[in-house]
Amino acid sequence: MIQPTVGRIVWYHPTLSDPGGTVPGSVQAAIITCVWSDTCINLCVFDPDGIPYGRTSVYLLQDRNEDPGAPGYAEWMPYQKGQAANELAAKLGL
Questions:
Q1: Cα angle for residues 14, 15, 17 (degrees, 5° grid)
Q2: 28-44 CB burial, b ≥16 within 10 A, e <16
Q3: Which H helix or E strand runs over 88?
Q4: 26 CB-contact burial (10 Å; exposed 0-12 / middle 13-18 / buried 19+)
Q5: In 3-state terms, what secondary structure has residue 83?
Q6: Using CA of residue 50, residue 55, residue 21, residue 77, what is the dihedral sign?
Q7: Residue pair 78/84 in contact by the 8 Å Cβ criterion
Q8: Residue 65 banded pLDDT, cuts 50, 70, 90
Q9: Is 55 exposed, middle or buried (0-12, 13-18, 19+ CB in 10 A)?
Q10: Planar angle of CA 58, 19, 80, nearest 5 degrees
Q11: What is the per-residue pLDDT for 22?
Q12: Angstrom distance (rounded) from CA 85 to CA 73
């Protein structure tokens, strides 16, 4: 699990009603602005034109086998997941 902190970048999976969320399966860049828990965050999301909008109490998907249920959630980018896996492997001496 990656610890969310203010200022980190995540991918936001927009709902159809979000700005620029009309393409199913698309992602938007977002900055974490508040951390409520390991899986609940507030975001400043950037639509495809770079215009920011806010989302509060967004579910942060931590593991791919979790089911977010619907769009409107955030997840770590593949690079961040890889870095976290490398750090864990180094700690375990692998």
A1: 115
A2: bbbbbeebeeebebbbe
A3: helix 78-92
A4: middle
A5: helix
A6: positive
A7: no
A8: low
A9: buried
A10: 45
A11: 82
A12: 22
Query: What confidence tens digit (pLDDT) does each residue in 18-61 have?
Result: 988 888 788 999 999 999 999 999 999 999 999 999 999 999 99
**Tokens 């999976």 -> residue:** 13
Distances in Å between the Cα of 54 and the Cα atoms of 12, 27, 31, 93 are 11, 15, 10, 41
CA 20, CA 37: separation in Å to the nearest integer? 27
DSSP state for residue 28 in the 8-state scheme: E
